[in-house]
Amino acid sequence: MSAKLDDSKPIFIQIAEELESGILDNTFPEGSRVPSTNEFAAHYQINPATAAKGINRLVDEGILFKKRGIGMFVSDGAKEQVAGKRKTQFYETYIVPLINEAAKLDISQEELESMIKKGGHSS
Questions:
Q1: 3-state helix/strand/coil string of the chain
Q2: What would the pLDDT profile of 9-18 be if each residue is shown by its tens digit?
Q3: Helix 48-60 vs helix 37-44: angle between axes, to the nearest 10 degrees?
Q4: According to the CATH classification, is domain 11-76 in 3.40.140.10?
Q5: What percent of the chain has pLDDT over 70?
Q6: Phi, psi of 18 (to 5 degrees)
Q7: Which residues pair with 73 in a beta bridge?
Q8: From the CB of residue 59, how many other CB atoms can be counted at a distance below 10 Å?
């Protein structure tokens, strides 16, 4: 678990995103148990209901599942599902605005591709 929460977005979303990141980097492989609401609450000193809201969001999406009396676990296929979700978010957050700004500046597709291939190295 990361040490600090960010004030710029709701805590329950940060909990869900932290779990998703752990699934992507294999901190929480498919089939493994994830920290409980009480563990998140104690670690971040937050209300357990807030932690539960983040975890339940992932349960609703089928990324986590509950084993009654044991805890929450990572579903089969969760890594692929999270990666797909994150790719969609990446596209909507970065690519669409990039393409729109490029169009405003009359940057051709070829020119844009060249800029991307340069990889942040200015010439």
A1: CCCCCCCCCCHHHHHHHHHHHHHHCCCCCCCCECCCHHHHHHHHCCCHHHHHHHHHHHHHCCCEEEECCCEEEECCCHHHHHHHHHHHHHHHHHHHHHHHHHHHCCCCHHHHHHHHHHCCCCC
A2: 888 999 999 9
A3: 130
A4: no
A5: 92
A6: -65, -40
A7: 33, 65
A8: 14
Spatial distance between the Cα atoms of 93 and 87, rounded to a whole number of angstroms: 10
Annotated domain spans of the chain: 11-76, 79-118
pLDDT in tens, 58-107: 999 999 999 998 999 999 999 999 999 999 999 999 999 999 999 999 99
Q: How far apart are CA 13 and CA 109, in angstroms?
A: 35
Residue of 48, 47, 52 whose CA lies nearest to 64: 52
Q: Read off the tokens for 47.
A: 């209300």
Residue 122 pLDDT grade (very low, low, confident, very high; cuts 50, 70, 90): low
The rounded mean pLDDT for the chain is: 90
